[in-house]
Amino acid sequence: MSGDGGYFRLSEDAEIDPEAEPAFLTVLQDVMGLEPHPGVTLRPVFGKGMTVSFVYMEPHSVAPVHQHPQEQIGTVIEGTYEFELGGTKRWVRRGDVYIVPPNVPHGAVTGDESCVALDVFCPPREGFRELIEKAARERGTH
């Protein structure tokens, strides 16, 4: 399996960060779940320049309206939820994508079904690191 010389190509002069550690993770086993609000579980994975967060919302749960300095792009993997973005509310479904510019207020509410979404943050969402450290202290694993 190697590049074909077109879009998928290998570069002989590309520099690889020696500090970067490639990894494969099983999200439900290897990534700590955080519950910042009842019925909402986040499982963030950190890269050097971005954070990916798997978001699990139970039926009739709320991710309160909030904001952060990172740009966020998300997609719904399963289920539906009402997503509020900059004061506009819209039901988003599997395959829908939302783009949240830095500092724009946003939040979500589920209806009768649960929802799984994938959010990507750039630069990394440092607030998640704080939640992980707090959860680890509370669980006595840090």
Major sheet size, sense and barrel closure: 9 strands, antiparallel
Structural class: mainly beta
Predict the CATH topology of the domain at 52-121. Jelly Rolls
* CATH architecture annotation of the domain at 52-121: Sandwich
CATH class of the domain at 52-121: Mainly Beta
Structure overview:
Strands 1, 2, 3, 4, 5, 6, 7, 8 and 9 form a nine-stranded antiparallel β-sheet that branches. The chain has helices at 27-30, 126-139, and strands at residues 34-37, 40-46, 51-57, 62-66, 71-85, 88-93, 97-100, 106-109, 115-122. The protein has 142 residues and is mainly beta. The chain has a domain at 52-121: Jelly Rolls (Sandwich), CATH 2.60.120.10. The radius of gyration is 17 Å and the shape is globular. Strand 2 and strand 3 (51-57) form a beta hairpin.
